[in-house]
Write a structure and sequence with these properties.
By secondary structure, the chain is of the alpha/beta class. It has helices at 129-135, 147-151, 155-158, 168-183, 201-209, 235-249, 261-266, 268-275, 332-335, 341-352, 356-366, 372-398, 428-432, 445-464, 500-510; strands at residues 4-7, 10-13, 15-17, 20-27, 50-52, 91-96, 105-111, 138-142, 189-199, 221-225, 233-234, 291-292, 315-320, 404-409, 484-488, 493-496. Helices cover 31% and strands 16% of the residues.
Amino acid sequence: MNDVVETASGKVRGTAVDRVLVFKSIPYAADTAGANRFLPPQPPVSWTGIRDCPDFTGKAPQAGLRPPTRPELEDFSGAADPSPETEDCLTVNVWTPDRETGAKRPVMVWFHGGAFAYGNANSPRTTGSRLAARNDVVVVTVNHRLNIFGHLDLSAVGGEAFRHSGNAGTLDMVAALEWVRDNIAAFGGDSGNVTIFGESGGGAKVSTLLSMPRAKGLFHRAIVQSGAAVRLRTRERALALTECVLRHLGATADTIQSVPVADLLAAIAPAEDALGRPPLPLFDRYPFGPVVDGDVLPAQPFDPVASDICADVPLLIGDMRHETANFLAVVDSVWDRTLTATGMRQRIEAIAGEHTGRVVDLYERLYPGLNPAERLIAATTDCNFRIRSLVLAQRRTALNRGPVWMYSFEWETPVLGGRLKAPHAMDVPFVFNTLDLTNATGGDPGAQALADTMSSVWAAFARNGRPDHPSIPAWPAYDNAVRATLVLDKTCRIENDPRGEERRLWQHITGTE
């Protein structure tokens, strides 16, 4: 197995792991520090000789931005990436079964989660070796700029040079896909068969790329896991947030490129607090995220209709059955299941307002065996995650172009007394078949069987543009009449319009029928 590959910028040497070659932290663009800060990604600096790529060299600055969690959940998802935070973070990691030129394997490009604020492509649970080896695909994971470094819109105060500063991190993703287009054949991949996939914020990144003219043609299938982005920042909110940042820092467009990294990170929370809540909080997300600027992003991705820019691309989309179980775990009364009916109503009222009574009544009627904490998890999962996936799928399907497939992950983990059930992000190691690198399943044999199925189905979709596989029943494409959905559980099955009453209620509340 030849471990040296020649890229457009120079030769790289990989390492053999799990019967594949891995190349870690290959630059796809230049360092973003100094004069490159807030600017579109610049071409990588070429090198001579062979660049050894055995280790992860870093991730985007993000210290202090990951939300707190319970001590019991600290190692639920496995070990954290120990590499340093650095503005020299525009790198890709590549896993390939064989770098044989002309092999033309399907390419699966992963965009990590973290709400455009934190996260990285170097996590053990997203190790690509097993997905690559077991399914004969090439796996690429992407690091890019996040939070204030990727999405501070200086266009109104910094002149032409900063015209795309609000979408710098968005353009990083395009640059990574351009690197794949130009280099992946040397790793045995097919640049004409690229699937982009991601979970949570990574799913929002996939949603964003689906609506970007610059990304058209750089990928050919898409998978959105628990991260549908129906709407992104408006130019008005982006510029207002920038004003809050500059005021907090006492900086200007002329000085902000030299502000220390730690000071920029420390400005995020007070700036977001000063900005206040968005007008549509269930859909307007990511204060520091992509901005609909009429150029990089011509319009909202899926509002009021789906973008037609990449509408022919087959799409697989879905959610976890109990998305908010791990977010709400920080609330002691939810974790220990002592939340009262009054406490549940108060939390629902903060979301549903005048519709609170209808929401509470529906979940009490549909789930009489659940306690108030469990009903709160069910309701907030539906309104914070599922409604966005359903609206995205519904509007994309209405275009009658590329097919859409919908799934629901419902396998429940027995760890921690079963409190989490099927929580947000637990599906990631199932896709990468890295359950043993986490503490999410307690070694349950049913979990490994489902991981084998799920990773195989995802790879089949990447290979053929259809999620057909012997391990699941025939999976019909989604339509707005039947709403066929694959339920991923101990026994996988097809359900039509699962939890339809909840869907109809939240679509009515949000005006998205």
